[in-house]
Design a protein that fits this description.
Chains A, B: It holds the Pfam family Asparaginase_II. Chains A, B: This is Asparaginase. Chains A, B: It comes from Corallococcus terminator. The structure is a homodimer. Chain A is an alpha+beta fold. Chain A contains 14 helices and twelve strands. The first copy, chain A, has one domain: Beta-lactamase (3-Layer(aba) Sandwich). In chain A, the strands form two sheets. In chain A, strands 1, 2, 3, 7, 8, 9, 10, 11 and 12 form a nine-stranded antiparallel sheet that branches. The termini of chain A are close together. The model of chain A has no long low-confidence stretch (mean pLDDT about 95). Chains A and B meet through β2, α6 and β5 of A and β2, α6 and β5 of B.
C-alpha cells in the first residue's frame, strides 16, 4: 500500500509527520487510487453535511420555508461565524418558526482567528448561532417542524430527524444502515463512522447525481463557497478557484472529502492523527494527482498557501512548511 | 519494536491516533526500554532548556547578576506569560543591564488560554517578555554580557553564546559537536536536532549529576515548578505531584523529557505528528511503567486529567479522551 504523509519541516529538516489514508473511488464504488488504509473506519464529521441536508430538500421543508441556495449552502457549511453566517442561521430559524435556544449545538470561538479575536475584544457573549454547524442544525429543526415532529432531542440518535438522515447516509454510501457507527459530534448531532471508501463513493455519486435534492445542494455549495466556510478558509478558496470542477467539504479531525464530477470520482481522506492543518494540503495533492491522471482541468491558481502552508516563528519569519511526501498508488 | 500510541476517542470509538517514539536510557547511555524508533532524530526544542542554561551558571554569569533559583527556573521554562513570569524576565534583563527590545524572541499569545484571553480583552500589546522562552533569552543575553560579547545576534548560530551552548549539548548527550542538527526555534534561538536516545542520556545524567551548575538548575526547577510552566500546565503539575522524584520538561511539537534520579534513568519521547496535547499523557504512561518496573515511588495523585485528558463537545459534555494504547518494550 502506498504511503502518503504530510511532513512538518523546520530549517529544512523533517520535524514531525502526519500519515494520511486516502480513497479515490468511482460512482460505482470502484477503488481507483489509494494510500494508507482506504478501508479505515472513522467518523465522517462535517464532510457528511451535504448528505445530512438531503432530507431537508427532499421532504419539502426547504421549499416550504423558502430556503434558497444561500440557506442550503449554510446547511452544508462549517462556517466561520462571520456576521453573514450568523444572520443567515437566524433567518433560517425564524423562517421555520424556531428560536435560537432550540439549537442543540453549543457556542464556540469562531474557526476564523480574526473573527474570534474580534468577538473577544468586543466582549460578545457567544450563543449557539456562533457554532460552525448552526446552519445544519437550523436545517434539522426545520425538517422536524415540517414533519410535525417534536423538535426536542432532534440532534440525538433515535429522533426521527436522525433516523431519516441515517437512511440517506446508508443509501448514498451503499452501506447497510446498521453498519454505520454512531457517535456524538462536537455540535451534539449524530455523527457517522464508516470506511473512507464508502465516504468517497457517496461523494462520487453526489458530484454527478441528477437527484433534484442532491443537485440543488451541490449547486448551492458551488454558487456560495463563501457561505460553506468563510474568508480565507480552505473550502471557500478551493471551490472558488476550481470554478465548478470540484465540490469539497472538510470535516473535523483531519477529514476532507471531494467530488470531481467530470471524472465521476469521489475522494475521502483522513489525516490519521486528526491534524486539521494537514487536511487541505493532503486534499490538494490528491486532487492534483487525480486531475492529471484523468486529464481533467482543475484550476489551482492562488491555492499555494493551502497546498503547502508555511510555518512561522514568533517574529513572523518562515521556518518551514507542511509539505506532501510519498505518493498515491493505483488500486 | 513495541508500538505505543495515544488514541483519540469519540463515543467509545477510536477516531484518530498518534504514534509515539520513546527512549528510556541509563546515565551510561544503555537503552532500558523503548517504543517506536528510539533513534528517531528530531528537534529537542524546549526540552533542551536546562542544558542551554548550563553555561549561564557554569561561566559565573548567574552569580554575577544575582540569579537565584527563581531566575534559573525561569531560564529553563516554557512559561505561561503570567504576571510573575513577565516580571521575573524583566528583572533578569535589568540585572544584566539589558533591555526588552534586545530579546530576539517575538511575542505570542500566552500558552495559558486564560492569560491569553485576558490579554486580548484588556487590549494589551504583547511584547517579547510574553514569549514563553523570555527567561531563556534573558539568560542568553546575560551570558553575552558577562563575557563581554556583542549581544547582537546572540540567538543565532555562530554567535559565541550559541557556540558555548552547543559545546554543552555535545558534552551531555555524548554526541560529536558536528552530529547536532541545527535549526531555528519558534523563539529564534538555535534549536538542536538529535536522536531521542541521546536526549534521554543527557536527561539521565542531568538527574544525578554532581556538577554544581547542573545541580543548581535541577534544584531550581524542582523548587519552582510554577515558574517552569504555569498554572494548570503539565510540567508544573507533574513536578509538584512527584515531590522531587522526577524533573520534567516539555518541548514543542510533541517532545517531552524527564529524569528519574532514583532510578538513574532519563526519558525522551516524541509524538511523531507533533501533537502537543498527547505529550503529557504519553510521558505519564512511560513514567508509571518505569517506576513500576524499577520499584521506585512516583506519586501520581491529581494527575488524572493530564494522564487521560477528556475531550468535550460544544455543550461542555465529555465525548471522549486521549488515552494510551500499546506498550513499551524492554530493550
Amino acid at each position: 500500500m502506498s504511503t502518503f504523509v504530510i511532513e512538518s519541516t523546520r530549517s529544512g529538516f523533517v520535524e514531525s509527520f502526519h500519515v494520511v489514508s486516502v480513497a479515490v473511488v468511482s460512482a460505482e464504488s470502484t477503488l481507483v487510487a489509494a494510500a494508507g488504509d482506504p478501508d479505515r473506519v472513522t467518523f465522517w464529521r462535517s464532510a457528511a453535511k451535504p448528505f445530512q441536508s438531503l432530507p431537508l430538500v427532499q421532504d419539502g421543508a426547504a421549499d416550504r420555508y423558502g430556503f434558497g441556495p444561500r440557506e442550503l449552502a449554510l446547511a452544508c457549511a462549517s462556517h466561520s461565524s462571520e456576521p453573514v453566517h450568523r444572520a443567515l442561521a437566524m433567518q433560517m430559524l425564524r423562517a421555520s418558526g424556531c428560536e435560537e435556544n432550540q439549537l442543540a449545538c453549543g457556542p464556540h470561538p469562531s474557526l476564523s482567528q480574526a473573527v474570534a479575536e474580534e468577538a473577544l475584544r468586543a466582549g460578545v457573549a457567544l450563543t449557539p448561532r456562533w457554532n460552525n454547524c448552526s446552519g445544519k442544525h437550523a436545517g434539522m429543526l426545520a425538517l422536524a417542524r415540517h414533519h410535525g415532529w417534536d423538535p426536542t432531542g432532534y440532534a440525538s440518535a433515535g429522533h426521527p430527524v436522525q433516523e431519516r438522515i441515517q437512511d440517506e447516509i446508508a443509501k448514498w454510501t451503499g452501506l447497510p444502515r446498521d453498519a454505520l457507527v454512531k457517535g456524538v459530534d462536537g455540535c451534539l448531532a449524530v455523527c457517522f463512522g464508516l470506511p473512507l471508501r464508502a465516504m468517497a463513493t457517496a461523494w462520487a455519486r453526489f458530484g454527478i447525481s441528477e437527484d433534484p435534492a442532491a443537485r440543488r445542494l451541490r449547486e448551492a455549495m458551488l454558487a456560495h463557497p463563501d457561505l460553506v466556510a468563510g474568508k480565507g478558509r480552505a473550502c471557500t478558496d478551493l471551490m472558488t478557484a476550481f470554478q465548478g470542477e470540484a465540490v469539497v467539504k472538510i470535516g473535523a479531525e483531519g477529514v476532507y472529502c471531494a467530488a470531481l464530477p467530470r471524472a465521476r470520482l469521489g475522494v475521502a481522506l483522513k489525516v490519521e492523527d486528526g491534524d486539521a492543518r494537514c487536511a487541505a494540503p493532503a486534499l490538494l495533492t490528491v486532487l492534483r494527482f487525480v486531475a492529471e491522471q484523468q486529464g481533467i482541468p482543475l484550476p489551482m491558481t492562488g491555492l499555494e498557501h493551502h497546498a503547502e502552508p508555511r510555518l512561522f516563528n514568533t517574529r513572523g519569519e518562515v521556518v518551514g512548511s507542511l509539505r506532501t511526501a510519498g505518493s498515491l498508488g493505483f488500486a
